[in-house]
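This section describes the prediction task in plain terms. A model, or a person checking by hand, is given the sequence of a single protein chain and must write out its three-dimensional structure as a string of tokens. No templates, partner chains or ligands are provided. The sample shown here is typical of the held-out split.
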Amino acid sequence: MKQSKSVLTQESKRKLIAKRDAFFRKVSDQGIALTYDDVRLTTGYSAIMPDNINIESKFSKNVGLKMPIVSAAMDTVTEAEMAIEIAKIGGIGVIHKNFTAEEQVAQVAKVKYHLNGLIEKPICFNENDTIKDILENRKERGFRFHSFLITDSQQRLVGIMTKNDFDFCEDLSLKASQVMSRNVITGNSGVGLREAHRIMQESKKKALPLIDKDGKVAGLYTFSDVKRILSGDSKTFNLDKNGHLRVAAAVGVYDDAFERVEQLISEKIDLVIIDTAHGDSKGVLETLKALKKKYDIDVLVGNISEPESAERLCRAGADGLKIGQGPGSICTTRIIAGIGKPQVSAIYECAKVAAKFGVPVCADGGLKYSGDIPIAIGAGAHSVMMGNMLAGTKESPGEFRFHQGVQYKVYRGMGSLGAMESNKGSRERYNQGKNDLVPEGMEGMVPYKGPLREVIHQYIGGLRRGMGYVGAGNIEELRTIAQFVRITEAGKAESHPHDIIITREAPNYQKQL
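The expected answer:
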């Protein structure tokens, strides 16, 4: 697809940045902070076709996005199914930490092994393992594939188990060595994607194990995923350098973080998020420094809403920041604790500081419509994190319920009473013990929205059209040139459909109460 090019000069961009800074400075000087409903983007000259706009962005310093949408680390939003699908569309999912460390790692593994471009550490079983043991392990870990390498006691490759081997085995007590295929076509370690494709085509094998000079397993390619990657069918997929879907995971502080990250690293997690209600705290800063010292991995930190917090975390080594304290539809932090800054002002002020350190920021919470996405990015965000807007999709883990003939899915805040009563991860996120809980979130349900891909199509469509009106050809340009006006309550009412009876609902609009 031919990308649209901006006609703005560097001098024009500089003037637009100064104009936007003046707008926010004037608002701040009055002691006012703004959120999405308070502002609109202004239009400008555009030579850009919305469908040709480049929406690639960054989630952290070293983790990119094909589209700037992230699914929230909530137990009714993001588990493996959501993370797989959103990565296929171009975003990234954050696996929540209401799992145990082992359960969370298993969720990450499902995402990482879903495509299997190059599996650096393929699942291997010993030749003395029974077929029953292998099948039970496969079910327990939730793997959808059926090909497993079989090794001896020295970790040398001796065979392979495929779906046919399992299907034709009637005695599950047999050992792998009695059922496996021994005639294994292999490649040397270091074989690239295209060479692997050639070898599998010529040998008509759907799996190509790689071995080192000692005959030990060094990797695995699978034909279906190699073909998909090379054919271009995966052009929207958000992939790591080995052709695996990208995925993130939430961790706590101190021992929780250290235990989880140690295990997540083994599954090639793309980044971890120190996910707390108050990111500018001693525990977070100390955990961040320890993780960056020990591991070569991006660490994104949240949540914050003040520029001073952004500076402290950036100086401590954060690779990304999550902005938003209390804006979520199921969050009551601002009401219960009396803290928090409206989102647009919080994003702008934190992003200005983070930019000095080259640290991307993610706007977390408060989004209601697709038009809020270009507003968040125009204020300085590189990506937006969604909870409510993705809850209720086919891929979200919430249970279904019917209410007055309408299908809903359960959606709750991580600070809700139910989440904190049943999960240590939720309590730690809000710095609370097991007894005498003080909830900072609600439990509820949202209408069933359908498949994620159809929902995201509308959100991205709104983003593209907003960028087209502004005249921004890519995400960085929108972050640079976007201009704002503050609107009144009358202006807000005027923005919505009015003076009509709606006879046919649009797929991208529902009036929020």
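For orientation: The first helix runs from residue 10 to 29.
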